[in-house]
Design goal:
This protein is of the alpha/beta class. Helix content is 40%, strand content 11%. Helix 1 crosses helix 8 and helix 11 crosses helix 13. It is globular, with a radius of gyration of 22 Å. The termini are far apart. Bound molecules: flavin mononucleotide.
């Protein structure tokens, strides 16, 4: 598939581009107006961090910055892939990009398939015009490699927006629930490996709200993928989104049977960290607060990502997105402070389980041993 540059000025869109545009627009409406949450929870409610009553540092001593795939982020946060391909999406992407750059967090764009189908839609992804320095990730569905998208196309979508990495999303459930979805996932792994070999930027593999098993993550990493974004269950359910979009009670009922499908984000993140200690992991799917970012890192993530919480603010303004980011980062900073952590690398050691304090041996100091009772 070749980008048809001559079509920049052409008003008529290709039929496929029209279909994609209509679909992306419906996705925005549904995610903004309806309940699309998974009926599973993320599992972060069962992860506890210790409370440190004597942190022995000031709140401002806490270091929130981290490094992710060679880029410094002011906090371990990526705005997840959401949109592109429509005028409304362009405004949303601009607001997300301006706010992400201001906060020093990363932004992933929505699937760029629409721009491959019709280059006239490319500006809806070109956020470097408004945020030249934002850490930016491109996005395309991996299954499109079986539907005409070439390795050169993946290079083009990266270069056309000046991206720092490429997200390949893996969405078999979503495709299977869509009318005429792209369900041929045969022999994709070698094609993913070819993309990883050809690109000058890292490739990140992600799910879209169902998670990624350890076995699949291992195969993807072997294929050359640089990082795994869990995009687990507990947040936006794409089964539910596609069910709502179907506009047909039978299809919606079918989709609803998958509303609790997938690996909860916390569990999948922890399992992957235990199985593959060196893996670079993005925890996403249902991350809504700074406390959950801290918990995600405590169970093994390098960085966290979230989509839906930023969508509605992005329909209003960059300032509204900035406020949402700032609240999350403030919560993350406070969570580190009150769990006695100076930075992200302290977090795995701050996990707490009922009774875990009982294993700590209290050795009386000379001062306490002089006291009549030691509690
Ligand atoms: C409106 C909307 C559009 C999305 N479009 C894409 C997409 O184009 N590509 C992709 O990889 N993920 C897409 N996603 C999935 C998100 O990147 C993310 O994996 C998922 O929503 C789970 O995260 P959350 O619970 O924080 O929303 C979209 C999500 C939303 C809410």
């Amino acid at each position: 598939m070749v980008l048809k540059r001559t079509r920049f000025a052409v008003v008529d869109k290709s039929p496929v581009a029209r279909i994609i545009e209509a679909r992306k627009s419906r996705h925005l409406d549904i995610c903004l107006e309806e309940d699309v949450a998974s009926t599973l929870d993320t599992g972060f409610g069962r992860v506890r961090l210790r409370h440190e009553a004597l942190p022995e540092c000031a709140l401002e001593d806490v270091e929130t910055a981290i490094e992710f795939l060679g880029h410094r982020l002011a906090a371990p946060l990526v705005i997840s892939s959401m949109t592109g391909g429509t005028e409304r999406a362009r405004a949303i992407n601009d607001n997300l990009a301006i706010a992400a750059q201001a906060a020093g967090v990363a932004l992933a764009l929505g699937s760029q398939r629409a721009a491959l189908e019709d280059v006239a839609l490319l500006p809806t992804y070109r956020v470097r015009d408004v945020a030249p320095n934002v850490v930016l990730f491109a996005n395309i569905g991996a299954v499109q490699l079986n539907y005409g998208v070439t390795v050169d196309d993946t290079r083009r979508i990266v270069e056309s927006i000046g991206a720092n990495a490429l997200y390949l999303h893996l969405n078999p459930l979503q495709e299977a629930l869509q009318p005429r979805g792209d369900t041929n996932f045969r022999s994709l792994l070698p094609r993913i490996a070819a993309v990883c070999r050809a690109l000058d930027v890292p490739v990140i593999a992600k799910s879209v709200g169902s998670g990624i098993s350890v076995r699949t993550a291992a195969r993807l990493l072997d294929a050359g993928v640089a990082a795994i974004d869990i995009a687990g269950a507990g947040g936006t359910s794409w089964a539910r989104v596609e069910g709502r979009r179907a506009g047909d009670p039978t299809r919606e009922a079918l989709a609803e049977t998958f509303a609790d499908w997938g690996y909860p984000t916390a569990e999948a993140t922890e399992a992957l960290r235990l199985a593959i200690p060196h893996a670079v992991i993005v925890a996403s799917g249902g991350i809504r607060t700074g406390v959950e970012i801290a918990k995600a890192i405590a169970v093994g993530a390098n960085v966290a990502a979230a989509g839906l919480p930023f969508l509605e603010p992005a329909t209003r303004s960059a300032e509204a997105v900035s406020e949402t980011i700032d609240v999350m980062i403030a919560g993350y900073r406070i969570a580190l402070f009150v769990s006695g952590c100076r930075n992200a690398s302290d977090l795995p050691g701050a996990r707490y389980s009922r009774g875990s304090d009982a294993t700590v041996t209290v050795v009386p100091s000379s001062a306490t041993s002089k006291a009549s009772t030691v509690v």
